[in-house]
Amino acid sequence: PHGFGVQYYYPDLYIGNFSFGKKDNYGIYRCERGYKQSGKCNFTFMEKGIYFGIFKKNKFFKGKVITFDRKTGEKNIYFVDNYRMNGPYRIYHPEYKFIFHYQDDELIGDYIYHGKYTVYSKLKYGEFHGTSIIITKDGCHHQFFYDNGIVKGKSLYLFPNGTYFVLRWLNNICQEIVFMKDRNNKLYYPQRILENLKVEIPLTYQCPIGYTLMIQP
Description:
The protein is mostly beta strands.
C-alpha cells in the first residue's frame, strides 16, 4: 500500500499513511499481538497498545502511546519523541497511580505515587534524588533527603497530633534520633535523657561493638 489507507491484519488495525508498504507519517495503530511483521518471515516486537502519532518506516517516531492490561486493569500513558520516551509517564491502576517523567529514555524529574500512601519526590537517572515526602493515610509525614538513591542527612517524621522526630541518616541507615518535640513544643533528647537518668541498657539492646543503644538492630 502507498498513500492514505486502512490495514487490518487480525487483530491489529492501522489507519493512516503508508509509503511503499510501510507505515509512514501520521497514523493511528492498535497493536494487539505485541509484534509487527517486517518481512515475510521476520517479526519485530512492539508493545501492545494504541499509538497516535508519526511513524517512520514502520517504527513509531513521535506521539502518544496508551497500553493496557485487561487482567489487572492497569493503563499506561506515555509520550515518544525521536524514538525515545520523553515527557510524563502515567500509570493508572484500581489501587494506585504513578506519575513520573522521562527524558531521552531516562527517568528524570518529578515522581508522584498515590496508593496506600502518597510519595512526592524527584528522580535522577532512575534514582530518588533530593527531598522526598511520604504521607500515610492517617496523616503522618516523613521527609527524607536522597542523594542518588541513598538516604543521607536529617529526616523529619511528623505525627497528626503535632509531635515530631528528627532523625539522622547515613547510607540508608538511621544513625540516631536527634531530638523529639511534642505538641506543646517541648524538646526531648533521647541520648541525653538516658545519660541523665543513668539508665542501664539491657545487654539485649546494646550494640556489640560500641555498647550503646541500638537504633536499627
